[in-house]
Amino acid sequence: MDQTITERTEAQSRADIYRRITDSIVASIEAGAGAWRMPWHSGADGAAPLLPVNLATGRTYRGVNTVVLWASGQARSYGSAVWGTYRQWQERGAQVRKGEQASPVVFWKAMDRSGAEAGSEEQEDARGSRRFVARGYSVFNADQVDGFEQPTPVLLPETQRIERAELFFDGVGVVVRHGGNRAFYRPVQDCIQMPPFAAFADALSYYAVLAHEVTHWTAHASRCARDLGSRFGDESYAAEELVAELGAAFLCADLGLAVTPRPDHAAYVQSWLKVLRGDTRAIFTAAAKAQAAADFIHGRVDLARRVEADGAST
Question: Any idea where the Polyvalent protein metallopeptidase domain is (predicted)?
Fold first, then answer.
């Protein structure tokens, strides 16, 4: 009987964390919908969104945790990308101010067939012999504490960021064709169509749009094999656009590129809200797929660089 009660309590706890995170992201999307500004877009100063970083480990958050912390930071106008639990701040000699509201994040526990647990991140569904379950906890931003000296973000000059973006996307190995006035991925020919470079306001805007289309490109069966039809049904097209939006945001944050609202995506906002309101796990799936796409793209670039380095050394 006690085990049944415990299982019910744990299931309720997981349902609560799905709802809390989904509600936070939905509220942020709703707040910016009128100006097409999403939680993953650049701030008012036009600077690239910084990936949230854990105070204790120094590692960046991933997947849905990145999205929910972007949403919390935008809603409360935080300027810092550093986050930590109450205890982590105490251990650093800092104090969370009284009355500050925590932000939810999630940690995934991998359950094997024997019932043993092992920590894992950003997974949503069962993988092989293991089952992943969500565990929620709370974090506070550096702007909510006293006694902590904020690190100064290091941002490369724009010319260097453009050069880095050019080299990065060259290393992906995707075929990009230019012409017309629309950007899109063409599955039949397995290539990306982009407007001429000169059609964009600046180079950073060009690469931000390219990041979106390259994320679409990863859906191919030979890459991430991302078929959202069975998961989202009639909403699969909107879900794929959300994955591409998030994947592009992750890539742009890695590269220090600004992500600005795209009016041509305004039509998707209501579809995204419909999906997220109706399914508290939808944003978890979308963020996990987007993170997998970003990881795949980085892997392609890393491989290309290793091959180039091996060739240069022979």
Answer: 163-289
Tokens of 302: 């890393």
Short-list 82, 80, 90, CA closest to 57: 82
Selection from 157, 197, 168, 205 nearest residue 180 by Cα? 197
Phi/psi for 184 (5° steps) reads -165, 160
Q: pLDDT tens digit string along 290-310?
A: 999 999 999 999 998 988 787
CA distance readout (Å), 297 to 170, 171, 195, 219, 282: 11, 9, 22, 11, 23
- Displacement of CA 94 from its chain's centroid (Å): 28
Reduced to 3 states (helix: H, G, I; strand: E, B; else coil), residue 13 is helix
Give residue-wise pLDDT tens across range 46-65.
Answer: 567 789 999 999 999 999 99
CB 50 within 8 A of CB 253: yes
Q: Which residues are CB-neighbours of 231 under 8 A, at least 6 positions away?
A: 239, 285
DSSP-assigned letters across all residues of 218-244: TTSTTTT----HHHHGGGHHHHHHHHH
- The pTM of the full predicted model, rounded to 2 decimals, is 0.88
Q: Measured between alpha carbons, how far is 224 from 115 in angstroms, rounded to an integer?
A: 29
